[in-house]
């Protein structure tokens, strides 16, 4: 399923059905079979392309991208190939002249039902925004694709270049320490709920979206200064932002905050395969640390242990020998509002999305929420820009302060 030439990603006939994998079944269980939207949004300056030109590109390429030709069967056991593509159902246009930063676009993409009929569960939206800007958006169902899968599909479907894909992570052998760590996460998932006072409570169901962008080189420089990676800086600054936010709201320091960190296990050759290829690790954010520098160093030590123990590969190995329905039940417990505040993911897209000669300024991938989760956070990097996105339930009305507090934590990091 690797690209064989520009615009084509198939080699020979595709099977009529493919089984849902463990993580796919977990999402289906968590959502009771309803689609969980996963948009990948690309922001552009300047005039938008014509809708007909976007439809023409999609009509030419989509039939050759395997994941875009399947949808879950009604019984929820397999992905089934669909019929001919009706491009007008899958590529739509919208005008949101009040949207200056992608928030209105995000709310729409997370709330509007998919209207693809009996076709595959994905769409492309061309959104005309404020000040002559526009967004080009790829939206799929999280049962069908994870964030990295969506990155591959969006690139193959929309980019002028079809070979500018991010590299798949190399596989390694599991370790006893890694296997033990996975089992500890499973035990925590089935244990008593973890107090998360800033994030516990009823779910409203209405969703807010907010963003903050920052030069990627700035995060890299902060990582070098503190012996950390970009991901460590992202999570450490997030921990300090939660501390500041909760202190402002309640006058108390937030206790350590468990989050679910997704890790891709999508192997070379699986770039365009249907289904989720990812696992998660439970990481506890040190919201009690008095400075963002200390928070980053604590996070760096914890993620270093994950890497040294090969947690990603160990979880992949355990999934391979676990019955799918049992694994799905475990997966729902690992990413559940009772035991984690929500996912905190990072996706690297690589080069900007080049569409009809225009390069995206920034990109953001995120998803809807389920299983009692009231907030999720993503960091999406492309070329020289990283975008922090916070998706939150409207019962957390001040959670839209978190991106600015995250930027403030970065500024404090630079001063220390």
Automatic annotation (TrEMBL):
One protein family per Pfam = WS_DGAT_cat
Identify the residues that the record assigns to the O-acyltransferase WSD1-like N-terminal domain, covering every copy: 50-176
Q: Which domain of life is it from?
A: Bacteria
Q: Mind telling me which InterPro entries this protein's record contains?
A: CAT-like_dom_sf, O-acyltransferase_WSD1_N
What is this protein identified as? O-acyltransferase WSD1-like N-terminal domain-containing protein
Q: Which organism is it from?
A: Streptomyces griseoviridis
């Amino acid at each position: 399923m690797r690209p064989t030439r520009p615009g084509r990603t198939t080699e020979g006939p595709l099977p009529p059905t493919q089984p849902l994998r463990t993580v796919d079944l977990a999402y289906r269980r968590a959502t009771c079979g309803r689609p969980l939207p996963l948009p990948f949004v690309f922001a552009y300056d300047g005039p938008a392309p014509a809708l007909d030109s976007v439809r023409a590109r999609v009509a030419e390429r989509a039939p050759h991208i395997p994941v875009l030709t399947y949808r879950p069967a009604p019984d929820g056991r397999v992905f089934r190939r669909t019929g001919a593509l009706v491009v007008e159902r899958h590529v739509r246009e919208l005008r949101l002249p009040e949207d200056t930063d992608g928030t209105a676009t995000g709310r729409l993409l997370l709330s509007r039902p998919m209207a693809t009929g009996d076709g595959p569960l994905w769409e492309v939206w061309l959104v005309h925004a404020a000040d002559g800007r526009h967004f080009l958006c790829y939206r799929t169902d999280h049962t069908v694709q994870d964030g990295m899968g969506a990155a591959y599909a969006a690139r193959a479907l929309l980019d002028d270049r079809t070979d500018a894909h991010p590299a798949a992570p190399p596989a390694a052998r599991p370790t006893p320490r890694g296997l033990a760590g996975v089992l500890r996460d499973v035990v925590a998932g089935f244990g008593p709920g973890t107090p998360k006072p800033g994030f516990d409570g009823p779910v409203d169901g209405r969703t807010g979206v907010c963003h903050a962008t920052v030069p990627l080189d700035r995060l890299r420089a902060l990582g070098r200064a503190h012996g950390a990676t970009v991901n460590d800086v992202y999570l450490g600054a997030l921990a300090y932002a939660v501390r500041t936010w909760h202190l402002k709201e309640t006058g108390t320091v937030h206790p350590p905050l468990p989050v679910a960190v997704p890790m891709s296990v999508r192997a070379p050759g699986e770039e365009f395969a249907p289904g989720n290829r990812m696992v998660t690790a439970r990481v506890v954010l040190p919201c009690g640390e008095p400075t963002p520098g200390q928070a980053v160093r604590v996070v760096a030590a914890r993620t270093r242990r994950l890497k040294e123990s090969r947690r990603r590969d160990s979880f992949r190995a355990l999934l391979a020998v676990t019955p799918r329905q049992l694994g799905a039940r475990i997966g729902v417990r690992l990413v559940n509002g009772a035991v984690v505040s929500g996912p905190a993911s990072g996706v690297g897209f690589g080069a900007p999305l080049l569409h009809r000669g225009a390069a995206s300024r920034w990109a953001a991938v995120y998803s809807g929420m389920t299983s009692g989760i009231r907030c999720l956070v993503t960091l999406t990097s492309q070329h020289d820009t990283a975008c922090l996105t916070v998706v939150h339930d409207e019962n957390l009305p001040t959670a839209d302060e978190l991106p600015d507090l995250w930027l403030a934590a970065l500024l404090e990091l630079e001063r220390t």
